[in-house]
Amino acid sequence: MDSAAPYLTGQASASASGQVLGLVLGIVDTAGLVITYWWVVALAAVAVWATGEAVVRHLARKASAERMALELVPSRHFDPGLEEIFRRGVQLARASTSMPWWAPRRSKSVQIRLRADGSSPLRYRIEGPAGGERLLSITPFGPAVTVNRARPLIDRPRDHVVRAEFILRGKPIAPLREVPLNPDPLQPLIDAVSDLRAELGDLAEIRLDIQRAPKWALRARRLQLMSDARRAERREAQRAARWVRQDATGIEDSLTWQLQQLVAGKQGGGGRRLVMPPVPRRVDPEEALGKLTEDDHLVRVQLLVMCASNTEGRAEARLAQLQAALDVFGGGSRWAMRGWRVGPWRFGADRWPSRRGFERRWTLGHCQPPRPNWVRLEELTGLLKPPTTHCRLPLLAGDLPTFEHGNPELLLQGIYRGPDGRRRLVATYAKETLFEVGVGKAGGGKTERALAQAIGWAHAGGGLMFVDPHRDSWPRALPFLAHDHLTPRIALIDLNASGLAPQLSCWNPIGMHQGQVAHEVVEATADAYASVLGWDDATAPRALTIFTAALAVLVTVNEAACQAGRPEDQATVFHVRSLLADPDFRTTALTAMEGRLDEETRSWWRTVFPTLPTDAFAVVLNPIARLAANPVTRAFLGQPAGIYNIRAAMDSRMIVWVCPGGNGPTDRLITALLARDLLRAVRSRRDIPEAQRVPFRPYFDELITLTGAAPETIAAMFEDFRKYKVHVHGMTQLLARLPIPVRLSLVQNSSTLASTAGSQSAIAPITAEWGDRPTPDVVAALDRFEHYMSLTVEGRRVGPVRITGPHLDNVFAGYARPGQAGALERAAQATAGAAPLDQLTDRAENQLTRVSGFLAHSSATQLAVHLQKKRKYK
């Protein structure tokens, strides 16, 4: 058996060698077959890849069909902190995985869409898996951001479209630049689309896809980065070693070193010194990996951009603007456009072979960046939220409509200069512009803007009343109103009585010939006097009672005269003096009106009046005496049946210009009477169905003067007139000088709040309403005719925005008819029933005789009727 062992061992060795040889020959034969028939293997590999890609695309398309969209609308005061924005980023990253298990990775993403198409400065949408809707609907931003379910966006084809994909360039481990929140990081992007013109088909959209970074890819990338860092460190160590050896060799071969050796007696001894090469430094993982050190809050992103327009060149220019805007985020790494340039041509997402993949990813929302664009959520802070309060938004045509001459639905506001330098007339919707307030120094352009607005409204067929105590507005507006279709609607009530033969209109505040309600006329007149003279139930109860009782009798007389067909025999406010001081007139009036006065009034005149001392009437008669002493006011208020009827003017769309004549005590009383009558007339519109009320716009220039006469009346206008489709426009130099009730009412209810230049202390109350954006010093430095204003459009506030006030000579140059101004003024006076001042004065002086005659006749008639009834009874 011992002799057989070597044989068996050799046989086993030969068998093993044969097997190895056979295996090697088999491998060689297989390799030969593969080399010979390589195309078969290639085709099989391509078929497997194509089948797998087709299955993956089918599943990805199916998963993308179940996506949802949300639109985030921030409030004006949206100001999130870094922590809130970071939490939103975490939500987005988490929502990207809310997909079925079979969904491919490319479909597991959340997309942020920043879109500008003319409807808004920048629409902010979130699109992602349907399963993540509940997670994304509740944001860390709270009520400052409204989340709405968004409908799919369908774009009409544009003639010119450019596409671009941005990838991260630079150090792969370096972060993007940390952009502060103030100003808003989105500001460069919004500035890039601020000159977009919807009428030219301009469109710009940025899509940022976010998905969680794949773990295996991160690990592979980290291994590669660490290996690269170690190789670099070894190369650096080897380079340093070479330099050390070269330095040592150079020193030993130098003459100085040899001399040292001779002096020391060491020549030829010891050989060369031993040189220790530097040891490679340990690679720090945080330094080598940078932002890729940790997995937490690391995401992969894809940035796609598309710009379109119907005008050649605008889409390309828009893309260049967006590219410059994205450069703001550049730091150690930056966003760079993918592709390469060859002469005038650029090969990128717009050309083969990249365009087809771009279109698929754009349409389906797939995230397949060509390189691993890994970023941390902190780097995307500027893109994870809508525009904040620190963002300056442009004013688009959709935000503020363009003014059209003759359009009754629009109200001119001024001239807006866009970011591209274009100027356009802007307007608000007339039905939404309920009250306006304009503040600023004298000569700043308040009245000019109001005149332009009023003239535009008049040419559009609207009715208005312009109250100007100083009359400067009338000659300024006259040439632009001198049109044949406007002349019949214009009436001028001018109490300045200028010229050699002044023409004056007339008005009887207590007249009943226009169908007024008796108690409303008494109340309006008494309240007007009380507001100017400071009467109330606490300070002057007796004067108020006496004056009200006298008005009640005179209004009853006027009502009787109108019913008898004798409106020319009506009493005026000047007959209060006769009623109180003339016993014969008083007795005749009370006797004639015996059957018309109510029992309480008759009882007051029988029992209370005789007990009053004579000096009790002075406080009532003094203001009436001042009115009578002025020939203008005597003529204006002393006519029995005046033409002025503001209620009829409202309902017939009249254009009424009222110039009270100044701001003295008498002028204030006239103004108070007019204001109170306006309040009474507007409130009387309650007898008309709301749908049939004709809009009317009173313009009050110099509110300080007007409110000094009737503060409570003006305040009530700003509170009540909206219900009756009467919209007040007020202008003042100082908001602080207005009475508190007026100031509170007009600021509270103003649809438009505007300010020109002025002192900072005067402007501060207005800028405070805007949150001091802009600050008072910015508004105070405005040029003439420049305004900052906030407006109301479609129920939301726009601005404050800088608007240039319209100048009549420019905006309405085509409407100017200076040659017809004189004819219009004469026609406006005729429409207001103006007559020579002397004629009106004579009629006012003789009116007492006419009233007394009517009362005597009425008294005799009533006595005859009474005697006839008495005989019949007997």
Question: How would you describe this structure to a colleague?
Answer:
- With 874 residues, this protein is α+β, with helices and mostly antiparallel strands.
- It has 30 helices and 24 strands.
- The strands form five sheets. Strands 1, 2, 3, 4, 5, 6, 7, 8 and 11 form a nine-stranded antiparallel β-sheet that branches. A nine-stranded mixed β-sheet has the order 16-18-15-19-20-14-21-22-23.
- Helix 11 packs parallel to helix 12 (473-481), helix 15 crosses helix 16 and helix 23 (711-720) runs parallel beside helix 24.
- The protein is elongated, with a radius of gyration of 45 Å.
- The mean pLDDT is 84.
Helix share, percent? 40-55%
Question: How many helix segments?
Answer: 30
**Strand-residue proportion:** 15-25%
Based on helices, strands and strand pairing, what is the structural class? alpha+beta
Summarize the structure.
By secondary structure, the protein is of the alpha+beta class.
